Amino acid sequence: MYFYVVTIKGIAMIKNRAKILKDKILKMNNIDCHESLWTPCEDILRNFYEKNYAVVVLNCRIDLNVDHRKLLNLWTKAKLRITVDGGTRRWLKWLEAHEYETNNTVKPPDLITGDMDSLPPHLLSFFEEKGSKVIRTPDQNQTDFTKALRELKTHCEQNLIEVDTVFVLADTSGRFDQIIANINTLYKASEFLGDKKIYQIASNSISWLLQAGNHRISIPENLRRDKEWCALIPMGAPCIVTTTGLKWNLDKSTLNFGGMVSTSNTYSGEPYVTVSTDRPLLWSMGIEAIL
Ligand SMILES: Cc1ncc(C[n+]2csc(CCOP(=O)(O)OP(=O)(O)O)c2C)c(N)n1
Ligand SMILES: O=c1ccn([C@@H]2O[C@H](COP(=O)(O)O)[C@@H](O)[C@H]2O)c(=O)[nH]1
């Protein structure tokens, strides 16, 4: 036990030293240390190899416009795989549609969470027999997605799994209440997931929440043209926003519903978009050209 505690302390110290060194190097190169860097398109293009990430499958259409091997790779390389209630059946159907064997070849979900009102019991037993851990989350004051992210945190802590990014398969078609609730989950999750990056991947777009502060979003070359779309959506409250790298930049401008919401924006051709915001702000971008 003593050895275990000392080891954990040692790892924390090394991490802290590495962070101080990284901040020093960034400062020397005139890069803002307090800027969050977002590179999800590179993650997709590099087949998700370089990240400590979890994948979460919600109960919506899995209709990603991507080579099915890439999506399977996202699943296989994850440090943690979670299917949420009816998302379990969606995942199974997707595997069957692409002729993947659930017997030996494809890993089962590590966790199946939810109130289990949309998952037939025989499918739950099917995966339980393959080793999936079932966590029932009956609370009807939070969505199954929010509860799944809480379980993700607990599971990672209990099993010493390092995850800094969460890719969520969350299509933006179908039930409007769920589309909005899923965005609300992004707002809530920062309370308990801290600075883990949570990306919602839909069939042809990717969206995430920019917290108050400064952000740098990497734009791959084949998206840097003005027929691609991106958006800054002040879902929670009005935001005062400054940007660079967009065709329609903002300069301490207020975005709010009933006023200006930056949709159908596009890029100016630079490799990064920078965003400064005083409040959490949803960023969304089309990714069809890189899939
Ligand atoms: C003010 C208020 N409105 C609505 C609800 C109902 N409600 C909110 S989250 C939730 C659970 C939703 O479960 P989930 O599996 O995420 O979605 P489902 O597909 O079952 O609708 C429920 C019932 C509530 N508890 N409080
Ligand atoms: O139309 C939908 C339905 C559901 N979701 C998301 O999936 C989870 C689980 O849903 P269940 O219906 O309980 O299986 C839910 O919390 C939503 O996040 C969705 O996005 N769209």
List keywords for this structure.
single chain; 291 residues; alpha/beta; Rossmann fold; 10-stranded mixed beta sheet; 5-stranded mixed beta sheet; 33% helix; binds thiamine diphosphate; binds the ligand O=c1ccn([C@@H]2O[C@H](COP(=O)(O)O)[C@@H](O)[C@H]2O)c(=O)[nH]1; thiamine diphosphokinase activity; Thi_PPkinase; ATP-binding
Layout: helices, strands, pairs:
Blueprint: H1 2-28, E1 35-38, H2 40-45, E2 53-57, H3 68-76, E3 80-84, H4 87-97, E4 111-114, H5 121-129, E5 133-136, H6 144-158, E6 165-169, H7 176-193, E7 197-201, E8 205-210, E9 213-218, E10 230-233, E11 239-244, E12 253-255, E13 262-265, E14 272-277, E15 281-286
Bound molecules: thiamine diphosphate and ligand LLZGTKA7.
